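User: Run a structure prediction on this.
Assistant: Running it now.
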Amino acid sequence: MSSVVSRRICGVLSRQAATSRLLLGEYKPAVQSPWFSPVATLKTSAPLRAEPRKKKKADPRREQMVRERLKKKLKKLERVPPELIPIEDFITPTKCLDETRERIPPRLSFEESESRALLLKEWSRYKQKQHMAEVEAIELALEAQREALEELKLESEELYQAALKPDPLLFPFTHEGPAYTPPIPNYEAPDGKYNDITKVYTQ
């Protein structure tokens, strides 16, 4: 409202000044000086009627209630035991726990079952003889070693003590697992693509 009123007052004053100049003959259409601006160019800004916001008084009861709620939540969290991360290797898949999945053994004839039983007995006898032969060979080797050490001890105590020490180079054995194909010399294996399905657990 103040800006509208000021504009109207400026317009009335400028009109009165123009009519008075026309009547007195003082009106001369000359270039206006940049140092003096006419009354019509006056501008006013809207008044600023703002004030800082008042701080709300903190309610101590409300703060106390918020604290009590937080304490209750913390107590509930303490009562609940922490959830352990499961080890998937020790968990049996559900499809293996299905009791309806049973493999029916094949039905054998009487002759086939008798031949398998006789073959199993023959195999057990063969393995027993093999085991007894190995045990006898080990006993003979140990007895021969004991006699040789006794004879060596009578000849030289130093050689006897040296013979008792273990020899790490006695069996220089190196072994690598079997491979389906022979190795390719100077072959650099590329990085394979895979989908990481590892489950991430958060406590």
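The longest helix spans residues 110-155.
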